[in-house]
Specification:
single chain; alpha/beta
Amino acid sequence: MTAKSAAAAARATVYGYPRQGENRELKKAVEGYWKGRVTADVLRQTAADLRRSTWRKLAEAGVHEVPTGDFSYYDHMLDTSVMVGAVPPRHRSAVTADALDGYFAMARGTQEVAPLEMTKWFDTNYHYLVPELGPDTVFTADSAKQVAEFKEAAALGHTARPVLVGPVTYLLLAKPAPGVAADFEPLTLLDRLLPVYAEVLADLRAAGATWAQLDEPALVQDRTPAELNAVARAYRDLGGLTDRPKLLVASYFDRLGEALPVLAKAPVEGLALDFTDAAAANLDGLAAVGGLPGKRLVAGVVNGRNIWINDYEKSLATLATLLGFADRVDVAASCSLLHVPLDTAPERDIDPRILGWLAFAAQKTTEIVTLAKGLAEGTDTIAAEIAANRAALASRAASPITRDPAVRARSAAVTDADGRRSQPYTERAAAQRARLGLPLLPTTTIGSFPQTDDLRAARADLRAGRIDTAGYEARIRAEIGEVVSFQEKTGLDVLVHGEPERNDMVQYFAEQLTGYLATRHGWVQSYGTRYVRPPVLAGDISRPEPMTVRWTSYAQSLTDRPVKGMLTGPVTMLAWSFVRDDQPLGDTARQVALALRDEVTDLEAAGTRVIQVDEPALRETLPLRAADRPAYLDWATEAFRLTTGAVAPGTQIHTHMCYAEFGDIVQAIDDLDADVISLEAARSHMQVATELAAHGYPREAGPGVYDIHSPRVPDAAEAASLLREGLLAIPAERLWVNPDCGLKTRGWPETKASLENLVAAARTVRAEL
């Protein structure tokens, strides 16, 4: 096909869409089901209504081919485990008794059984449930969900394309099941898994599917020759099937690199590639392999992960180049639109000029359709859209919001000495022990306590004017008093104020810093029914006044035990925001670090003896390619040290990380030079403690003994057992006892019981030393 005919054939499509609904209907229905207020039939109907609404909106916007199978009650990787029959033995009876309850048991656990481990989906803030596999795993096909959702869309008259997690990515993201040797490689199960995918594909073809998409984002990471051979074998076998739809293999989040020639040669009908940011190198990769003659190319030129408007002229130039590489070029976002909010239309608090710089899922869909039209019919047909886009981009570039000379001057004046503590850790540790007087195995929590309905109602009442500021603050003081009192009675050693005044660990700070914008309806799924509203980092950052000192000091006035000051670190402030794309990330991180440095200094001056600067996103934001990691870790660790470097030796600096693979960043954790780090460890059975020990980590650490992302209450014996495992790697004088993460999403009854058990476990193990 010629470039001209390839252009004429261009169509618009997407890989996936936000699941929650305009008013988070899915969250409410699922949580209602968990609490017994919503029946299974009502939950299923809500889900069906949301799917149909999404397909209708996409079709009305001009999308030619809608995705199916991307919808999930909880997580698409969990859905894949169900599709291939990879149900852990401990969950099989629950799944057999009731498929829906068994599904949620794998996601959340029950009082009797632990859930699947949860970790970050590549370098996003979405969490997936990790498959547990072993040499005895037997896969069985269950295509019911995929077939049913495809048929739903087809019955409504939509051209639909089922979307599946690809077999190689599924295995590469899996872990050895409990009791299986740690060196077991799930990829060795590929030949056992492929026939199951073949069966699912045959079922989809029988249902009428013309195309099926297999997502292989793991291929943008560095892969060994053996792994690349597995990719070649997988798509040789699947491509060689006769009873299947046409196959579109999709990869995103970065450049394919050495995997691109493998996929280009595979007997599949199409590839879907990311052409944004670092993944723009896929353009050179296609040229190097001689393009994709005879194949379909879906070009992800609209950024599916950030919320800034597309540059139409730049994207059209990329698309024009791609026309010579494939038989047909379609237009899409770089990845599923799951990672952005639904629509800018409901936002009433953002200046309309600034709102014109933003594109959520609905606006990105329009961008995709516009670009496809321009490619297929000529740019004259979208001349007005190009002109408006050019004006919006110019407006943003010229806006005073984006540049503050004072902030830039301060950032430019930073020296290496600003990021170094005045004494080494060994001397600091002695000063801190003398000042704090803590026992062996000191107990603490990560920061937040349950955000009750009363607290949410108080914030809503304040916004609506039903109570004044004085009334709201009285409620906050009362909640802090209860939290501090409970911690004292329970016997925790280092307390927190519970963060009742905070809506979110990033948004709370963003609303008090210049350069940030807050949305009212910009919800994005983090995991399961947990949704967050990432703020928009639009311009230069500064801190006009203290943000946390008042409430931390109030909590400290209620107790003689140390109360931690709680801050969100600079890397996490970036990672969990929609960050500006008009300057290097390291420059933005330095600005945020300087603003937080002022807060740390004020907390210390107010008498706060322990200050925690959370960086759960440090691993999450790690570039997917090893070659890109040193530069990132340099500015990321510098930003943390800049935040904390001004405090006195006797002030103890903590940090916290959760739900990530820490082995890749142990050196960076060391380089932060925090006095204490707390980490998720309960679901991974203290794996991180072993990793810290293998590295020779010299400071204090608290690998979590209580998994807070499950409603189950671990008893004291379970927590003590985990604690003993931690002691095998970390000496008692450097080991802390804490939950995996903050307690914001938990209820008070389970929180109280779990923390009481945690303290009891610490006392038991302390007595054994």
